[in-house]
């Protein structure tokens, strides 16, 4: 799971699990608004983001990130945040500008709120990803030597 900080943006928002919960709720509300609106063609994006956030919530809760070490979980979370923020921003602009019914406008407004929340999650995840990558590259693997360490010759 992501690392915890003392007094950062993450602790002001209530931690990772609360932020993921907010993202699930926002995605579900936006999905319902798009179903009720004339912009129903946009309903797939919030549904997929809701399901992806739900999957990652259960993956972190069941500690799958500790069982599957080969998958870079912070990178997965980072890509989810980036794509969600971009997609929500794009479909919110389209919903607010193109459609006139109230449900489309509500979905667009909630989409802009979701864009901001995903951007905050993007910022937190980016800092955790940088920390994760620095930890991975700070210590070389013990069993392997580089080609320079093995060779004794000074020739070019």
TrEMBL record:
Going by the UniProt record, its keywords in alphabetical order are: Membrane, Transmembrane, Transmembrane helix
Q: Where in the cell is it found?
A: Membrane
Q: Where are the transmembrane segments?
A: 25-58, 78-100, 106-126
Say yes or no: keyword RNA-binding present: no
Where the record annotates domain MARVEL, the positions are: 11-130
Cell membrane is among the record's keywords:
no
Q: Which InterPro entries match?
A: Marvel (IPR008253), MARVEL-CKLF_proteins (IPR050578)
**GO cellular component, as recorded:** membrane
Write down what this protein is called.
CKLF like MARVEL transmembrane domain containing 3
Task: Please spell out the taxonomic lineage of the organism that makes this protein.
Answer: Eukaryota, Metazoa, Chordata, Craniata, Vertebrata
